[in-house]
User: Which sequence fits this backbone?
């Protein structure tokens, strides 16, 4: 029993890594060099937050940090800063994941929107303090809005497609403790 | 109840908190290091991209090709108009071809008469586009030629027709081209009939902006824009595009290079680009700074002159 639970956790960690690699790969494809109007929503970030709220044990902080640091380096972002913001955001949600379990989805959505906005603003603030040239504010705002709007979709896909639910009553972890 | 649930793991809490704090500190240090010593961290980044991206080449090829096929298929729907348009253009081109052939013969004859030797340093290396920046805020592409092929930072990159961008970041077997549309791109240009100097600054739209024009009333939409060679950034006379009036009534440049399909790019082996090894110095008269490496001195005086 314990081994089965353990194996499932590792399978989900592997799945997250796989999804992250595929997302990075798709972003790097040289399809169009013309700047397009609207940026894409950051679906990987939505997935990360949804999983951290549902099953924090699937996404240890070190995995999140590794994936986002790699993304920072490959996507020409200032290395480390966005990773730090994601780490702080996920830790904030992780510490509240047991509390969030009783909330309705609308409340969860608003919470996630707030965290996303705080992460984006925090990054822009640090960049402004460090006097790094930044992306245009309207583009950042558009991406933030699209990511927030796409969050329910990501949750639907992750819960029905990948079977990541909030723990049901009486579920136990690998050590036999109640979740 | 929530307290009761985690009662037996509570001893893990503080340790975990310390580890998370340590991780956050490491990330912050990486960012600060990048901010303080950008060239070195960018070298590390170029090395990592060099290691990772070529490994994805086998997977990228079919996907890119399939996307290209879809794009081509979409264009079949208006094949009739395209055909008509092409016929018209072909007629015009025939006349141009005739003129070009005659000029070429004449040019060859004149070169022969004068015994001109073309500058052997004006050659190019051609690379294939491997990946793009992957972010809507950055406009750059990755080429599959790098330090191995003698590529240096700062060299100009063209497609068959016009300027595309500038090399910025060289790995062992890959190099990054900052496109003219990127918000960090600033290129000195000349506008042809009037001879006005300007700066072409990218702003994340398809048509970059013309900045610092002395007298905009002398510039008309349709004028040719070529690189001016000011500041030694680029060789002079590379075609950039045509002046166009944007919807916001500002002068922009419609680029000649075909940004829809960047596949093969030429890197012009133009001049030894200035290597950036240190994060930067004060711009001051040389006697104040004292003895310095030659590169830093020339950069300082150039900036002071400009």
Assistant:
């Amino acid at each position: 029993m314990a081994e089965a639970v353990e194996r499932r956790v590792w399978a989900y960690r592997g799945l997250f890594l796989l999804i992250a690699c595929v997302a990075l790969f798709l972003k790097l494809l040289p399809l169009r060099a013309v700047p397009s109007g609207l940026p894409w929503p950051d679906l990987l970030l939505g997935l990360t937050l949804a999983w951290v709220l549902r099953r924090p044990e699937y996404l240890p902080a070190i995995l999140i940090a590794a994936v986002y640091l790699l993304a920072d380096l490959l996507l020409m972002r200032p290395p480390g800063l966005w990773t730090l913001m994601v780490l702080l955001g996920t830790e904030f949600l992780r510490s509240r994941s047991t509390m969030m379990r009783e909330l309705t989805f609308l409340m969860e959505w608003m919470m996630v929107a707030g965290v996303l906005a705080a992460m984006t603003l925090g990054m822009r603030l640090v960049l402004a303090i460090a006097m790094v040239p930044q992306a245009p504010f309207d583009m950042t705002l558009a991406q933030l809005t699209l990511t927030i709007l796409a969050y329910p979709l990501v949750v639907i896909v992750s819960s029905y497609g990948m079977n990541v639910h909030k723990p049901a009553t009486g579920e136990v972890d690998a050590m036999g403790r109640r979740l | 109840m929530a307290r009761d649930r985690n009662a037996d793991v509570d001893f893990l809490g503080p340790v975990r908190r310390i580890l998370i704090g340590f991780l956050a500190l490491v990330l912050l240090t990486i960012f600060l290091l990048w901010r303080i010593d950008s060239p070195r961290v960018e070298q590390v980044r170029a090395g990592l991209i060099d290691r990772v991206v070529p490994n994805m080449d086998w997977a990228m090829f079919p996907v890119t090709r399939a996307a290209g096929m879809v794009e081509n298929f979409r264009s079949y729907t208006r094949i009739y108009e395209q055909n008509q348009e092409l016929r018209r253009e072909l007629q015009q081109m025939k006349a141009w071809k005739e003129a070009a052939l005659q000029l070429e013969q004449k040019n060859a004859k004149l070169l022969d008469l004068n015994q001109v030797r073309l500058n052997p340093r004006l050659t190019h290396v051609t690379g294939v586009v491997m990946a793009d920046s992957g972010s809507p805020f950055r406009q750059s592409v990755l080429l599959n030629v790098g330090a191995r092929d003698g590529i240096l930072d700062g060299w100009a990159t063209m497609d068959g027709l016009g300027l595309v961008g500038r090399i910025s970041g060289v790995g062992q077997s890959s190099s990054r081209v900052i496109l003219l549309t990127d918000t960090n791109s600033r290129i000195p240009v000349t506008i042809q009939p009037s001879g006005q100097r300007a700066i072409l600054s990218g702003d994340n739209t398809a048509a970059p902006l013309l900045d610092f024009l002395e007298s905009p009333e002398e510039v008309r939409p349709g004028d040719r824009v070529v690189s001016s060679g000011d500041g030694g950034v680029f060789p002079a006379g590379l075609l950039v595009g045509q002046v166009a009036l944007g919807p916001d009534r500002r002068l922009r440049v419609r680029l000649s290079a075909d940004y829809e399909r960047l596949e093969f790019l030429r890197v012009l082996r133009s001049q030894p680009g200035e290597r950036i090894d240190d994060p930067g110095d004060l711009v001051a008269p040389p006697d104040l700074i004292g003895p310095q490496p030659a590169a830093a001195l020339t950069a300082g005086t150039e900036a002071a002159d400009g």
